[in-house]
Amino acid sequence: MRIGELSRRTGVSERLLRYYEEQHLLQPERRPSGYREYSEADIGVVRRIRSLLAAGLSTTTIAAVLPCVREEGERLVPTCSVMLADLTQERRRIIQAINDLQASREALDTVIAAAPPEFRRAVEGIG
User: Fold this and answer.
1) What is the pTM of this model?
2) Is residue 1 within 8 Å of residue 29, measured between CB atoms?
């Protein structure tokens, strides 16, 4: 199938599909005319890419783990034990990012709470 059909069937824009190819996440065949030719299996690959992106993984990490996951219904299942170390490291990175954001929010809350009451009334309803 051509890129337009893959886009329609997956709900992913052609631009993003080209980006996935640039990132070596998709490897379509090329026709002699230069057109990309995708297989039925690429539909599942795109779904797995989207799931891993939604989990907060970078495309670099996805390129490494994509060959080691398969779909079981709505969830992804690891097929390579080595991949678990990469996923665990990514989970640690995400937890640290969450902790950093929570600390930032708390710092902002402290600054906002220190504002004179008339300032806070002026922005009531924000946040």
Assistant:
1) 0.77
2) no
